[in-house]
Every structure is written in structure tokens, then in C-alpha cells.
Amino acid sequence: MGVSPVSTNHERLIYKRSRRKYYRARAFFYLLCFAIIIAGTYYLLHRPWIAFGRIVVEGGENITVEEIKRLDSIPEPVNLFNVSRSNLENVLRNDLRVEKVSTSYRWPNILRVDVTERKPALYVECSYNGFAKVGYNGCVLEVGKGIKDASAPFISGRKIGNVYNGDIVKDKEILGLVRFLGKLDKSITSEISEIAIDDSDKIKIYLLSGVPILLGTSEKLGEKVDTFVIICNELKTKKINAEYIDLTYSKPYVKLRQ
């Protein structure tokens, strides 16, 4: 009979220990290689010169992809591995033009940004010959030297002083007006050409048809929404030769042209 190399208990113990060390060393080597591959892949994918994915914006008229890149300092080419969704959402939530924002990923490599923009309720004159664009919550969305578009009616006969982006308008009549306008559909507000407030705080709304509607003060504007909508729809569907329509009191009064 031959002599086995592991014939004794001592030799068997040494053999098992050596095999155990070998397996541990091999497992450690494989684990190290795996970690290096993961770290290298992570490092490579996050390089700024790697182009991966694209950004799309849904629901925004003024907030574009280029605007988002500028606001969140996203360099070209776009690498979605370097774009933080939470940071992007925070940046947009701090933008006065944005009411709501959410982000999500779409297969295979698209970052979708859903934006609900604040709509301007009206323009009003402010200090230094400027004009303030005021949202439906009374917040000043933008201050500029002129009225850039016809997205909202202009208030004449009123000035709100020195205001900045993000300020809340304090004027009671204007706040009442923005709440009133916020209850109207776009189809109705698009018919308004101008709003006038006189020295006694009485409000007059001029329609594109040329017919002025007198609303009185802002005290009970909310109660006149339904009547105002009915009158506007009547003027669109019927030929009413009105000089003005008075909604100051509970019963509307139509002054016909002579």
C-alpha cells in the first residue's frame, strides 16, 4: 500500500487550511475585480463628456429645455447620470413662473419634466414707468418696462408703487380682481381687453366687443362671477347694442345705445 500525503490528521488539517486560504484569496480577488469594474463603470458614466439621454418638457410654454439647462447648470452634452431630479425640481419650484413641477424617467433614456406654469391674471403699472405681471395668487411674476404680450389684460387708473419679482400685491381692489379673474374660464378672460379702476375704486371691464361692464368695488366681486359669465356669453351669441352693462347692484342693468 502507498502512503497518502494526507494520511495523518495533522497533514489533513494543514491541507484544509491551505485550501481554505486559497478559496478566500480567490473570492477576495473576484470581489476586488467586481468592485473595480463597478467603480470604473460609475466613474466613466459620470464623465461630463459622456452623452447619455435627453430632457423633454411637458406642459410648459415659457419653460423650455434650454431654460432648464441654464437654471440647473446642466452642461452639454447632456448626461442624465449627472442630473439630480430632486435638485432640478427644487430649482424650478423656486422659479416664480412655475406653479407645479414633477420629474420622471421614460424608457429608454428620457428625463421628462412636467411643468405647470403660473398664468398671469393682469398687468398693472408700477414705479419707474414699469409694468408688473401679477399672477392669480397676487404674486408679482415679472416686472418690466413694457407689456410684452396680450396674455393678460391691463389695469388702467391704478399704480402699485415699487414692487419686485416675488412680492405680493397689497392693493385690495387688485387682489379682489385677480380672485375674480381666477374664477373665469380662458374663453371669458380672452374677451377682456382692459380693466379700469377709478378714483372711487369702482371697477370697469372693457370687452373686445367694446362694451364696458361696470362691476362696482371689489367688495362683492365673487358674487358677480356667474352673472358676468352669462352676460359675456350673451354678448357673443346675440347682437346687443349696449352702451354699457351695469352689474354694480344685484340686478343687471343694460344701457342700450340710442
TrEMBL record:
BP-aspect Gene Ontology terms: cell division
Location(s), subcellular: Membrane
Residue ranges occupied by any POTRA domain in the UniProt entry: 50-118
Keyword list, A-Z: Cell cycle, Cell division, Cell membrane, Membrane, Transmembrane, Transmembrane helix
Matches recorded under InterPro entries: Cell_div_FtsQ/DivIB_C, FtsQ_C_sf, FtsQ_DivIB, POTRA, POTRA_FtsQ_type
UniProt KW Disulfide bond keyword: no
GO CC entries: plasma membrane
PANTHER family: CELL DIVISION PROTEIN DIVIB, CELL DIVISION PROTEIN FTSQ
UniProt name for this protein: Cell division protein DivIB
Native organism: bioreactor metagenome
